[in-house]
Amino acid sequence: MNYLKLKIFIYITNIYLHNKIFGKLAFESILKFKHIGGDFMSNIFDNLADRGSVFKDKQFLDHRFLPEHLPHRDEQITSIAKYWIEALNNVTPSDVTIYGKTGTGKTAAAKFAMNQLKEATSSKDVYIRTEYIRCTDYTTEYQVIAKLCQQMGRDVPYRGWTKAEVVNTFRDIFKKTAFGKNMILIVVLDEIDILLKNDGDGILYTLTRTDNVSILSISNYVDFKKFIKSRVMSSFRDREIVFPPYGAQQLVDILQERSDLSFINDSLENDVIPLCAAMAAKEEGDARYALDLLRTAGELADEKESNIVYGALVREAKDKIEHNKITDLIMTLPVQQQRVLEAILKLTMDKEEITSGKLYEMYEEVSKGDSVSYRRIFDFINELEMLGIISTNTISRGRGKGRTNIISLQCDNDILEHALYST
Ligand SMILES: Nc1ncnc2c1ncn2[C@@H]1O[C@H](COP(=O)(O)OP(=O)(O)OP(=O)(O)O)[C@@H](O)[C@H]1O
Ligand SMILES: [Mg+2]
């Protein structure tokens, strides 16, 4: 019996020692593994965050950032204010329309004026509301009015009601005066041309026929009024403000202010800002493009672990932006349009003169039986031309031979090839 007890004791001690020794070893090796594998086990973001950067705060180069000061837009902002000042005297301001090409500061100036008006209102005995609507997000009259109702505390669903129900709810807001005062509503309809093209001029009809509503419309196209019928035009007597493209020197001033906020001191070589400004001035004076160039050049400097941004990086940034823009555009085109582009690319590489007939033949070959009609190809050609990917040129073949459309690519073959074949 004693012998048995002794055996059990030895057995248990063995297990205990075994566990203790090998358990410790195993535990140590886990620790060791963690240590050896330190590069993997520590957080990857720590490593990336530790890398130096030319930026001190990139958000100031973001499109959505609204600067406190907008150089070279004083005149336009003052014009808006001259109309809106009426609201401070309890009079509904005239409707205003802002025109200008992309990146000319229309959205920024409108938002700036809205903020200024809010500030001015706080010390006055008036009830003014300003509401900003981006018509690329709210593309029908129903959606815009529903959004306005919701912003002003009415529970309106985004679908399901009739248009009349939504419009009546909207108009009710003005009947019931808040705190006994008349409310004046200023609605900023940014990119209004998209809404008008998509859903007609009903929105303007409704808003112009609601008391105490003033509209500030923003459009990239001077001819957006072609979408407005005369019955609406008669009550939409807007004042127009033009935003001209920025010149190179103006862009230098804009970039200078933004770069002081975003880059570490002395991290930009002297030619960087003038170069971004000159390139953007060529692109129709687009401040957004200028900011993109500057930000991308800074990102390239970080990628190359350079603590200085230099001119060559701006040129590289230009190619990168161009590349991404075209690639994004092409990758989101419908399949049949991509095939038309593929056919144009093949003919271009074969150095062929591209007539619509030749294009259709090549397109059929590319589509391998799944093709659309010859007539439909003309719509595609128009759309691709509007996007700036191709251009067409009508030439005369001489007497009695009629005229022919010659198509040519407007973007780099390599970029197109990459975009088409990487989808
Ligand atoms: N005068 C300026 N000062 C500082 N930044 C500016 C100025 N004008 C434009 N920007 C900046 O350039 C970018 C583009 O401006 P904005 O969005 O106002 O252009 P837009 O005319 O509305 O263009 P789009 O027609 O494409 O909508 C924004 O980041 C804006 O802050
Ligand atoms: Mg805008």
TrEMBL record:
GO MF annotation, one: ATP binding
Nucleotide-binding as UniProt keyword: yes
GO process annotations (BP): cell division; DNA replication
Family matches, as InterPro entries: AAA+_ATPase, AAA_22, Cdc6_C, Cdc6_lid, ORC1/CDC6, Orc1/Cdc6_arc, P-loop_NTPase, WH-like_DNA-bd_sf
Cross-referenced CDD domains: AAA, Cdc6_C
Cross-referenced Gene3D superfamilies: 1.10.8.60, P-loop containing nucleotide triphosphate hydrolases, Winged helix-like DNA-binding domain superfamily/Winged helix DNA-binding domain
Keywords: ATP-binding, Cell cycle, Cell division, DNA replication, Nucleotide-binding
Residue span(s) of domain Cdc6 C-terminal: 341-420
Binding, ATP: 104-108, 246, 258
Domain called AAA+ ATPase: residue spans: 92-247
Pfam families the record matches: AAA_22 (PF13401), Cdc6_lid (PF22703), WHD_Cdc6 (PF09079)
Protein purpose: Involved in regulation of DNA replication.
Family annotation (PANTHER family): CELL DIVISION CONTROL PROTEIN 6 HOMOLOG, CELL DIVISION CONTROL PROTEIN 6-RELATED
Stated family: Belongs to the CDC6/cdc18 family.
Cross-referenced HAMAP family: ORC1_type_DNA_replic_protein
NCBIfam families: orc1/cdc6 family replication initiation protein
Protein's name according to its UniProt entry: ORC1-type DNA replication protein
